[in-house]
Amino acid sequence: MFRGLQVQTEIAAGRHLPEPKGLGSIVDGMAALDQIGVIITVKRDEPLFFEGDAAEFYFKVISGAVRGCKLLADGRRHVGNFFLPGDFIGLDAAEYHAFSAEVVADTIMVRYARWKVHALADQELAIARSLVNVMRTELCAARNRMALLGQMSAMERIANFILMMADKSGTRDISLPMTRTDIGDHLGLTIETVSRVFSRLKKDHIIEQQSLHHIRIADRDALVDLADFS
Amino acid sequence: MFRGLQVQTEIAAGRHLPEPKGLGSIVDGMAALDQIGVIITVKRDEPLFFEGDAAEFYFKVISGAVRGCKLLADGRRHVGNFFLPGDFIGLDAAEYHAFSAEVVADTIMVRYARWKVHALADQELAIARSLVNVMRTELCAARNRMALLGQMSAMERIANFILMMADKSGTRDISLPMTRTDIGDHLGLTIETVSRVFSRLKKDHIIEQQSLHHIRIADRDALVDLADFS
DNA sequence: CGCCCATTTGAAAATAATCAATGGAAGTGG
DNA sequence: CCACTTCCATTGATTATTTTCAAATGGGCG
Question: Do A70 and B147 make contact, defined as CB atoms within 8 angstroms?
Answer without folding.
Answer: yes
